[in-house]
Amino acid sequence: MSVFVFGHRNPDTDAICSAIAYADLLQQTTRPDAVAACCGPPNKRTEYALERAGLAPPRIIMDVRPSAEDLCRRDVVTASFGESFHEVYQRMQAADLRALPVIDDDRQVVGVLSVLEVMKLFFHNDHDPVKSRTISTCLGKIHDVLGGGFQHLVDPARKDELMVMVGAMSAEGFTDRMRKFPAELLVVVCGDRPSIHLPAIEHGVRVLVVTGGFTLSPGLIELAKIRGVSVIMSPFDTINTVLRIRSAQFIDPVVNRDFVTIDGKASLAEARGIVERSSQPVFPVIEDDGRLLGYSFKTDIINPPKPRLVLVDHNELAQAVSGAEDAEIVEVLDHHRLGGGLKSTQPIRFINEPVGSTCTLVARQFRAAGITPRPEIALCMASGIISDTLFLRSPTTTDTDRQVLAWLRELCLVDLDQYAQEFFEIGSALRSKPPVGVISEDCKEFTEHGVRFSISQIEETGFDLFWERKDDLRSALEEFAERHRLDFSALLVTDVVSQSSLLLLSHESEAWEDINYPRLDRGLYELRNVVSRKKQLLPLLSQIITPAHA
Predict the structure, then answer these.
(1) What is the DSSP code string of 364-393?
(2) 375: burial class by Cβ within 10 Å (0-12, 13-18, 19+)?
(3) Which of 70, 226, 272, 514 is 20 to 30 A from residue 456's alpha carbon, by CA?
(4) Taking residues 40-48, what's their average pLDDT?
(5) Angle (nearest 5°) at CA 408 between 406 and 411
(6) Which region holds residue 124: left if phi is over 0, alpha if psi is between -120 and 50, else beta?
């Protein structure tokens, strides 16, 4: 199972670029199965960064809880009506299976076959000595299981209900017994006994099976042709020949046609509900058109393997991809405060340092491993640093960020000064997105002193578009807070030119009187020299909503 490297929900450039770069490093070092993923589409600036770097965006996965198709076994081994027990059992034995799905020519599931059900072909009608020797098969299947050869052949593909008789008694007694049954239903099995061969051929039996590797004389073969009797040579002794003939029976009568399937798109909970109510040994997993996709056993659904995650640019489950609480977190690489809810069953690598960008930490991991990133990965990491530190102008910027970006500058094939200017000019959320899209683009949820709230942040070149859309944005914030059951929602609009921000709130309490920044309108504040959600705004809000102010 792959290890998915995830940034936070509503991912920004640093979240996506750090996931891509760190997955690339892990692939070269300790986890070749690492896959970069994100729980939301890249914004315009991130798309621009990836396009300039020539990198594909990460795989979008909105929920890591596996579906039925994620858990099912794709190395499908199946059976079909008209196949013999022998060929199906060999297939099951080779794959170490105790059951498998039965499909038709269009891969539609038509039944389920288990080893226990197949054994009924050998032990059916034990109370009736005649019916217990009756088999449903064709001569072609008998020939295949014996591995011998035909001395004469009549209609080998015809499906017959045949009764097996062994020529082990006296010739006279066997002949009298044989003549009590219709000749066209009889399979006569015996060794080198012409005294049995001749009356069987004269009776016109369906097939004469000669065991021990013996053959019929030319005269008897000519008579068999005249009487329409097929002759099969078996290299095995009589006992083993009879057993093999029984294994040539069609599986059709013992296929369970009253079965249940699992939709490939079904959630794990839905699939578990199906398998817990059923005693079926194997569960076919089907596609939307009903065709077989794979199959699962009950243990696959009841005790599935946990998805494995590496978290970058966050460490709080509230900000992680849906289903992360049920996953195995194997590593964390972040530059934010420690949040709640994250647990592990064993020690994990947890890197959390006060730098301006997670991409800074990823780049340091490249250097520590002695690996020089490819130019496209270097530009990817540089983009994350440029975005999160506002090209080293944010108060969150550290000397480590500056040193790492200087190192990456030498590896990139573009002029980073020109690139950074283009990067911030691209993808104005206020210009290209509806109000709810502006709020959702880079939104994180927090809990402080029992108060749940969200902070969204966008970077713009000037505030002109904000003033045009202020009222719509406030309404969207109010709806967002209500929909997500938050105490309030905030939007921080940062001007990368003036290095200042405007803070718009869904609503305020009396505590906001202590914010000590100019109030421009209802729920709107001017925050000069504030550009960092993490280092400047979040501590400010935390102070305002302390129990003394709440």
Answers:
(1) HHHHHTT-PPPHHHHHHHHHHHHHHTTTTT
(2) middle
(3) 514
(4) 91
(5) 120
(6) beta
CB 482 within 8 A of CB 474: no
DSSP state of 321: P
pLDDT tens figures, 372-388: 999 999 999 999 999 99
401-439 confidence digits (pLDDT tens): 999 999 999 999 999 999 998 998 887 888 888 999 999
Can you tell me the distance from the alpha carbon of 316 to that of 447, in angstroms, rounded to the nearest whole number? 11
429-544 falls under which CATH superfamily? DHHA2 domain (3.10.310.20)
Report residue 489: phi and psi, to 5°. -130, 145
- Poorest-confidence range of 294-298, 490-494, 545-549? 545-549
- Mean per-residue pLDDT of the chain: 91
Residue ranges per structural domain of the chain? 3-65+307-425, 429-544
> Angle at the Cα of 101 (from 98 to 103), degrees rounded to 5?
150
Which of helix, strand or coil describes residue 168? coil
Mean pLDDT over 29-45 rounds to 93
Strands 292-296 and 59-60, bridge-based pairing:
unpaired
Beta strands in 417-487 (DSSP E): 443-448, 451-460
For domain 3-65+307-425, say whether CATH 2.60.120.1140 is its number.
Answer: no
**E-assigned strand segments in 41-108:** 59-60, 99-103
Using alpha carbons only, what angle is made at residue 290 by residues 287 and 292, rounded to the nearest 5 degrees? 65
